[in-house]
Amino acid sequence: MHRVCDGRPSQGRQGHQRLSRPRDSRGYTVGKHEQKLGIRASSTTQIILEDVHLGSEALLGKEWDGFKIAMSTLDGGRIGIAAQAVGIARAAFDEARAYALERKAFGKPIADLQAIQFMFADMATQLDAARLLVWRAAARKSSGQKFSAEAAMAKLYASEMSIV
């Protein structure tokens, strides 16, 4: 099955529905497979729909709740992106630490220099803060609570922290 969105542009956010149809249905074609730089475990392809007619049995969720469903999916994705950013930052931290222990200046590892230690303290604090934001958003989602704001904060902070 594949999900598609049907719209009534004049209705704004209330003009979307989430629909499902079998992939081997008439009018459904898979197009070009996109070559991505990252996240290759998840494929991205064009979906081409021509003269597609669906009945009410294809409706997912309540009628015209498509936008709400899409936003909920986006919020969940933000938690995943934030978790990836934390993983990237953790790997960078580990590599930087290994380098600081190996690299010598003035006859000792640069990890012994106070300025380098301050940098690692800041990195560790930011990494922990990002991880806790991700955990909070994920915990709220898994317990059925609202989590839109928490997911957005986790994604923003973790993704910005990971590129500094």
How would you describe this structure to a colleague?
Helix 1 runs antiparallel to helix 2 and helix 1 (66-102) runs parallel beside helix 3. A 3-stranded antiparallel beta sheet has the order 1-2-5. Strands 3-4 form a two-stranded antiparallel sheet. A two-stranded antiparallel sheet has the order 6-7. The chain has 3 helices and 7 strands. With 164 residues, it is an alpha+beta fold. The relative contact order is 0.13. The mean pLDDT is 86.
What number is the mean pLDDT?
86
Give the N-terminus to C-terminus distance in angstroms: 41 Å
Task: List the strand order in the largest sheet.
Answer: 1-2-5
Oligomer: single chain
- Total beta-strand segments: 7
Structural class: alpha+beta
Low-pLDDT stretches:
none
SSE run: EEEEEHEEHH
Short structural description:
The chain has about 160 residues and is an alpha+beta fold. The chain has 3 helices and 7 strands; from the N terminus they run βββββαββαα.
Present the secondary structure layout:
Elements: E1 2-7, E2 16-21, E3 28-33, E4 45-49, E5 59-60, H1 66-102, E6 104-105, E7 108-109, H2 114-142, H3 148-162
Antiparallel strand pairs: 1-2, 2-5, 3-4, 6-7
Which labels suit this protein?
164 residues; alpha+beta; 3 helices; 7 strands; two-stranded antiparallel ribbon; 3-stranded antiparallel beta sheet; single chain
